[in-house]
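Thread: Modeling a multi-component assembly for a lab meeting

Hi all, long-time lurker, first post. My supervisor asked me to bring a structural picture of a complex we are working on to next week's group meeting, and I have zero experience with this. I have the sequence lines for every component (867 residues in total). Could someone generate the structure of the whole assembly? Inputs are pasted exactly as I received them:
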Amino acid sequence: MRDLVDLALSRVVGELARINVERGPGKPHFEDPRYSAKEFSAENLKNLEKGDRTICFVDGGSAIIVEAPNFVLASHRVYYSKYKGAERTRQKMPNMLEFFSLTVSMPAPKGGINYETKIYYDDQNATAVIPDSADLVFDSFDKTMTSGPARADISKVSMTAREFAEWRMIEAVSEIEDAEIIVRDGSLQTIKTNESKYAKAAADACDKKGIALCGVSKTSTLLTTTGLPLLSAINKIAGDSGMREGGWYYENIVEINHPDHNAEMFVAKLHPAAEYVFRVEISKPSLGKRGAGEIISGLAANATDLTFPGYPYGLINSDVMGRIPNEEMKYQKAKIFALNASLRTDARARDAHGVLDSM
Amino acid sequence: MEIISQIINGAHGEIILREKSDQPIELGEIVVAEDDENNKILLQVYDLMYGSQLDDKRMELASGLSVEDKWKDLVFYDPELRHYVLAKARALAQVKNGESPAVPKRLPKHFSMVRRFSEADKEFIARQDNPLFLGNLRSGSRVLNMPVHINGLEALSHHMLIAATTGRGKSNFLKVVLWDAMDKGYCGILVLDPHDEYYEALEKNPASRENLFYYTNRKGVSGAYTLRVDVKTIKPDDVTGVIDFTPAQEQAIIKYRKEFGDNWLLEIARDRECIFEKEGVHPGTLSVVQRKIHTKLGVRFKDGDFICDNEVFDVSGGEKTIDDICSFLSSGRKVIIDTSMLMDEAELLVGSIIANRVLENYKAKKAGNRLKELPVIAIAIEEAPRVLAEDKINQANNIYATIAREGRKFKIGLIAITQLSSVIPREIMANMNTKVIFGNELAVEREAIISSASQDLSKDGKNIASLNKGEAIISSIFTNFAIPVKVPSIDELIKSAGPRPVAQRKVV
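Re: Modeling a multi-component assembly
Sure thing. I ran the full set together rather than chain by chain. Output:
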């Protein structure tokens, strides 16, 4: 049996090697016509410069405390850190803000079911990041949140409050901090209903202060026209161009004309020792004031941590601090059940995975 | 007070502190956790370890990038937040509102801030009656200006063990104790000094002229007494306690004692006829006893005369020596006997004779209800396993074992000095109610001390191993907790005392 498995796996490995060798890079592939892909060219590769920038990194995390078919109680945290190059600098406002959300299914005025989210918080500082409740009412079949014909997953809908809050955090940080760059974890493209309103407000606020707004994505599903991963293809071009020894970024990947994605896309290797390359997006208005080289080099100056060379440390920190640990979620859950034991019964109606997992 | 760490986790006896990056904590350091309700809990660090927010693989990779020197620009971001030192501590004592210290029965509050121990925390070190100085309080390697005393009257009668490997400060400690006790009438101390190292320092004590008596066979030592003991003052028990005799040999000795009283030893040496043969003393037995007396004590009979080959034992002098020494000791004086010229058994025999007399004397005083007014007498003996090892303590008439077991009832204690605590039986170790523990790299020795200490030192192995010269831990039934001390050098005490006043020795 073991031999058969080994044989199958060796065939798979061989097939993958053949695919990568036989296929050329092609060109970046985007299904959406609002994205005009550009031909690959080694001339699009640029060296990184040296220069520390004051950068704020924004991220957040959520944890579902109680989940039933008709409601989700979730805890949310948004966080930012501030660095000048490799040095952490003192932030000017509370950098960790927390709130709870309760998302419930409600009859929609025109029939059907809506998901409505209300937000609860004690910390008045959180007011600055709390999204408008009116923006958190969604049709349960909202296409931006469904996959396939089924109703949207209420737990995914409940995350929207935090996602909007992250945009609001960017807006607040841009107003108060003396940052040159603000970085969020992920793309600058907005997907969910009402999200673009918050993204635009954040981008406008940054633009007003001359701050470059960036998104750095740890993962990318983008492909080339030959079906290769876009980031791998660009990394190979860089390698073939003799840029293995230094940090670099690649521009002119695509021209984006999407109203909910007002950004330029880059791929960057932020340190020569980096094992990964990342997709970096920069808000278009930002590029009017600062060049891509300056902005991405600023990110590189914060990507020299020994534990993850080539990834901005501020994002590591914001990810860790913005996360709600499992223990904390369990504690909150216990508190909620202590206040209202019947919620435990409601929660059981959602699924019995927990029972199976414990067997 | 500056915060140096915070309690983050743990259990009673194993409290975990997270060190503040710029406030390094030392092994053995004493720290204080204080809460809003004026509770102070004293903690002592017994272990240190690294903590990190990174998993092992990530740290190994980071280290590789760093040590291979490939990427000089790579650094640890937020190093003080991500990599730190964790300290394990245990609670030693608790004080509430300035009351007397007590054994802590609760944990400090979770996330209590922790600061260093300072002179302002003096309430943790209880005042003692009959104070005997043991050293200055030490927190890690930081020495505080806080002298540590123990109740000398109690501690000396309940026996003291001074344990360490060579060069860690055992002799210096005893010198310091003697220095402090010199003018204290509540204790007489006898030191059997096989290296003749105590007198030179202690005679510089301002009170030495009246209180220190030095016996030696070295010539030309001013102020010294000649160490000469009349063999007629030796009793069978003195001898059988330190020299191995068979039961038949002991029986023979008893016969001579009964017949000749104080001359028993001389008569044994003289007897060529085996006068008690008909009463069961075999000539061969007598011959062996004679040989032992000759080889160990140097006493023999030749050409019609008694000859003593040993400088200490005499057939025609020194009849008052033992009585004098006992008298000095029972009047709270300190006596040093230079045994550096003596063979092992002779040294122990001298101590044995004195110890027997002192015990007899104090027993009689107790019977007459007069013991209370007398000082405690402590007998300091180097290389204590010579008389306190497993195979020695059950030897008939081993006066040292007798004192270790029941001396405290008669205000007589031992100061046992040793490198090898492990060969002293638990029963004796348990009776050593004050242990002065110096550094020791040998785990088996540390274990012997730890397992018989008056406080729970089970987690102090590393701490004891890491003690530097002069650093010690005092574990005693007379202290609230095991107290770390730094014993000052005797030279420092001599220097700070200044020149000794010129005066004539008081004749006692």
